[in-house]
Amino acid sequence: MNEVILNVDVSPFVDALAAVVGEANVLTQLDDVAAYVQDWTSAYHSSALAVVRPKTTSEVSKIVGLCSAENIAIVPQGGRTGLCGGGVPINGQPSVVVSLTRMNAVRSFDVAGRTVVAEAGTVLEALHAEAENNDLIFPLVFGAKGSCTIGGNLATNAGGSNVLRYGNARELCLGVEAVMPDGTVINTMTGLRKDNTGYDLKDLLIGAEGTLGIITAAVFKLFPMPTARSTAFLSVGELDDAITVLNRLQDHTGGCVEAFEFMPKPAVDVICKVFPDIRTPLDTPAENGILVEVASSRPHDAKVMEDGSICLELEVMELLSVLMEEGVVLDAMLAQSEQQRADLWKMRESILEAITEAGPAYHLDISLPLSQIACFVGEMDAKMAKLGFQPLTVGHLGDGNLHYALSAAEGRDWEELPLDTAKEMVFTLLTELNGSFSAEHGIGQSKLDVMRKLKEATQIAVMRQIKTVLDPKNIMNPGKLIPTE
Ligand SMILES: Cc1cc2nc3c(=O)[nH]c(=O)nc-3n(C[C@H](O)[C@H](O)[C@H](O)COP(=O)(O)OP(=O)(O)OC[C@H]3O[C@@H](n4cnc5c(N)ncnc54)[C@H](O)[C@@H]3O)c2cc1C
């Protein structure tokens, strides 16, 4: 039995869980539980009375009912790719992990209405494949797509590379089915795009990081499959130039920019060092690199031209030539094949693993108004260098989101660097520039201190009131998202 210390015999409780989901789906042995109580970053290790793996919403409801009766904490869990320690129990509190990964059915697909209903444990990439089989796309995309689940995506209101065009998980979702902390099941899955019938409970659960209930299924919007794409890696002189490129591309293509990712040289260097099969796309490495993707489903854009290229590619090339003449773009490489496009995306999506592999780093997930990004990066990079840090930045620049990681500069010892001073500097400037300290990864356990310090106290108080009303026993993912008083 697991190491959680209880002064009572938990076997009857475990037996009751097994009666709901079957013995094979209740894990209690340390070795079996180990993987479920450690988060992706390895920063959080804990323990659990049991890991339960339900197959149906009714089973989830019964599990929650059993935990509620015994005042045992419940930790909803998907693919465990969260980066803030939200999906693992907190230490010292008897908890049950409810892993949704067996609830992975696509329940229905409405091709005409362009919606899909999928269960919470569906892996994001599996939903991509399902949509593509129907000549449509589900546009939420990021590096963890092969492991993260749509339940986790909603619980964290995940973003990724395509937010610029399609919005984040919240904007893609038309309704959820969820089990509330007392075991009640709510179903807001009408799939309607207009439904003004009171408080939007779906929006309360999205981004709640499992603190208000367990999402068991959701209905999502789908979009036309692009038939033409143009993917390029650009070198721009200054960050402000990148914003000019973004806006000119949007104007030129009628808003077809799907991704606009900032990849400056230090980050690309780390990727190439850790993954030697990945090479920098430009002969002269870009100080300020941008991975840009434009896509369209308009037949006109997919027309093949005399030289074999497609119309959209030509349009993008035309604009890039103008921008190069103007000195806004310094160099550009356009993907000439699906393989080259895949290579560019592999480079982008390897960054987190590369930084993690390269050594200790402190990861910030921040957002800023587009007009303030250049100011933030210029000022902060200089300050961090003085303190002995090497900032490794990448970002979904198109939507103002930077992943700003602080690593040790060459020859500096991480343990001796003034991390608290650095964090203070970052948060002070962020506040001055109207930025956010958590753009897309959420709060979990790791950002509770910043939340307490920087989030408006009155907003935290309202969050506490909501939590208390819906979860009076504080059993639904306790110790996450809302700082203690
Ligand atoms: C390489 C890499 C790249 C990443 N890139 C991005 C990115 O670009 N954008 C981005 O937004 N995130 C990114 N992430 C973070 C992470 O992938 C997302 O937060 C993801 O949405 C989490 O999904 P999950 O299924 O793994 O959830 P988990 O990690 O299992 O859980 C995350 C949180 O959601 C809660 N939860 C999980 N399932 C449910 C449910 N069914 N009901 C209620 N609560 C639930 C958990 O309790 C926890 O609080 C990245 C992570 C990695 C490892």
TrEMBL record:
<dbReference type="InterPro" id="IPR016164">
    <property type="entry name" value="FAD-linked_Oxase-like_C"/>
</dbReference>
<protein>
    <submittedName>
        <fullName>Oxidoreductase</fullName>
    </submittedName>
</protein>
<dbReference type="InterPro" id="IPR016167">
    <property type="entry name" value="FAD-bd_PCMH_sub1"/>
</dbReference>
<dbReference type="InterPro" id="IPR006094">
    <property type="entry name" value="Oxid_FAD_bind_N"/>
</dbReference>
<dbReference type="InterPro" id="IPR036318">
    <property type="entry name" value="FAD-bd_PCMH-like_sf"/>
</dbReference>
<keyword id="KW-0274">FAD</keyword>
<dbReference type="InterPro" id="IPR016169">
    <property type="entry name" value="FAD-bd_PCMH_sub2"/>
</dbReference>
<dbReference type="InterPro" id="IPR004113">
    <property type="entry name" value="FAD-bd_oxidored_4_C"/>
</dbReference>
<dbReference type="InterPro" id="IPR016171">
    <property type="entry name" value="Vanillyl_alc_oxidase_C-sub2"/>
</dbReference>
<feature type="domain" description="FAD-binding PCMH-type">
    <location>
        <begin position="44"/>
        <end position="225"/>
    </location>
</feature>
<comment type="similarity">
    <text>Belongs to the FAD-binding oxidoreductase/transferase type 4 family.</text>
</comment>
<dbReference type="InterPro" id="IPR016166">
    <property type="entry name" value="FAD-bd_PCMH"/>
</dbReference>
<dbReference type="Pfam" id="PF01565">
    <property type="entry name" value="FAD_binding_4"/>
</dbReference>
<dbReference type="InterPro" id="IPR051264">
    <property type="entry name" value="FAD-oxidored/transferase_4"/>
</dbReference>
<dbReference type="Pfam" id="PF02913">
    <property type="entry name" value="FAD-oxidase_C"/>
</dbReference>
<keyword id="KW-0285">Flavoprotein</keyword>
